[in-house]
Write a structure and sequence with these properties.
By secondary structure, this protein is an all-alpha fold. Helix content is 76%, strand content 0%.
Length: 245
């Protein structure tokens, strides 16, 4: 991989956690201030309007600094062009592995953190508990459909695509001085960055670690991106089916 300016772990964590901290604060404040809208819809809209644009800006700005023009070059340095079939093969295998972990690791993590989760949610309005399907169903049909549509677009496409360019691309390249530890470090940062979903960190790290390492070794972030999209697609469709039934 071509040598690049290294931003370092301290700057990386400050940049990532500062951004997502502000985003999560906006989410909480807006969710409390606008009880007439589902908190999930608010989160997705704030993601589209704030979080994702910030991540794109950081990548584009780095390209401008290092290469003289705004582009995705900062996220795509060292990436190899590989057959689509190979990308899809690895992505579907990783999706299958993630599925196995979703039936093993995730329930265990949920059980271990149940008391802490319930205690935290007790301080927040009911809408911040995404497991409460009846809360979503309590809204008018047009709002439910709008929430499902926006959630699908954001969680299946906008979120995973942006996050993979940002984490598996840009942040991995610009922290490559850590060598073989880079994918693990960035995966942990990526997991912890989900301040709005704080009780799935073990599960996220376990499923994204093999994705990150294979993408890193193959120099193909599209493997992780495709697997990420598949995982989110399955989770999103499961949620929507539960809501509309």
């Amino acid at each position: 991989m071509k040598n690049t300016t290294q931003i370092g772990l301290m700057k990386t964590t400050a940049m990532v956690f500062g951004t997502t901290g502000l985003f999560t604060a906006l989410y909480l404040i807006t969710g409390i201030a606008l009880p007439q809208l589902p908190t999930l819809l608010i989160l997705c809209l704030l993601g589209v309007l704030f979080l994702m644009p910030v991540e794109w800006f950081l990548m584009l700005r780095q390209s401008k600094i290092d290469y003289g023009k705004y582009s995705l070059k900062a996220a795509l340095i060292g990436q190899d062009k590989q057959p689509i079939i190979q990308t899809l093969f690895f992505a579907f295998v990783l999706f299958g592995v993630a599925g196995i972990f979703s039936f093993t690791v995730q329930p265990l993590e949920n059980m271990l953190l149940f008391a802490l989760r319930e205690r935290l949610l007790s301080f927040l309005p009911i809408g911040f508990d995404w497991n409460n399907i009846e809360y979503i169903k309590s809204f008018p049909k047009n709002i439910i459909l709008a929430t499902c549509a926006v959630y699908f677009i954001f969680n299946v496409f906008i979120g995973p695509i942006t996050e993979e360019f940002f984490f598996r691309g840009y942040l991995t390249v610009y922290n490559n001085k850590y060598g073989k530890w880079t994918p693990a470090i960035i995966t942990i940062v990526f997991s912890l960055y989900h301040f709005w979903l704080p009780f799935q960190n073990i599960f996220r790290i376990i499923i994204f670690l093999p994705m990150a390492y294979i993408s890193y070794q193959k120099k193909n972030l599209y493997i992780c991106m495709t697997a990420h999209i598949l995982c989110n697609l399955f989770a999103t469709l499961s949620f929507i089916i539960a809501v509309v039934n």
